[in-house]
Amino acid sequence: MSPPPPPLGRSRKRAAYAFDAALDDAELAHARTALAQGRWTEVRALLAATGDDWDRRGHRFDVLAQEHTTTAWARDWRLAEPESTDAVVLLAYASVHLALRGKGRSENARDACREVAALLPADPTPWLALLTLERSLGREEDVVRLFDEVRHRHPEHHHAHHLMVARLAERRPAAGQDPLHEVYDFAAWAAEQAPADSPLAVLPVIAHAERYRVLATAGSEPANPAASEHWTGRRARQVMKAAFDWWLEWERDDHPRCRVDLNFLAHAKFCEGRAAESAALFHRIGRHATRAPWSYPDRDPYKAFTAARNAALGSA
């Protein structure tokens, strides 16, 4: 089915980069539309087919749970099939996003996630939902504990590592450009622990971007990342080169969140002034732009993405 036309007053050009959380997962986007129309059986089939591909399972639950109508339809699903653990996971994950939007109680979300985690002891997804909540609302010791729970069940969990990096980057904002900051150590350690073909190889670039967000928000770096020396120092160049070389050798187009890594890497290479390399990445991103890191520290992500893309492709 073709997507509906953009609303009046919204240009088709801008609609091409809708920052869709589903990224390039067409099956997920279709199931999400079906769920919004009350057809939860299509979501059931999608999640059953996902199996124990933990990164894909976490991605799909997270995207489905973000929709405002999910709670109501997931309740219908649970009433119709009370034995369905996927329905219970989706309800718990949806309660997390409700709490993050200020529409639900965080303690209720915590309780729901803990209950479903007990039902599915091998599944990292309920713990990922809790980590998503506590990354914004919880204490640091809770974030670390929940990350350990996810990693115990899936050591290379992509989304969990990104959440952990984002939280660690917020430590000691007054420390400024500290090359020994713990977020860099964590990212380097995680990349080294992962197999050679793991997309966690890009995690040091994620750490560099998240730390820039913190420093720019604190006012110690320019609000325009392309004007910041954060991206052109010796350490930054080494991190970016290593990640780009990994992408050239191992590009994981099959990973459900590969477009997240591509956006971070394109942003980093563009800010570094490497137009040709960023152009190659923009070609692979296609229309699957992500808000982060183009919004960092407080920018319009559409304007930032399209300006960088046009500049890179025009000079390549």
Automatic annotation (TrEMBL):
Species this protein is from: Streptomyces rectiviolaceus
Name used for this protein in its record: Tetratricopeptide repeat protein
Gene3D superfamilies: Tetratricopeptide repeat domain
InterPro entries according to UniProt: TPR-like_helical_dom_sf
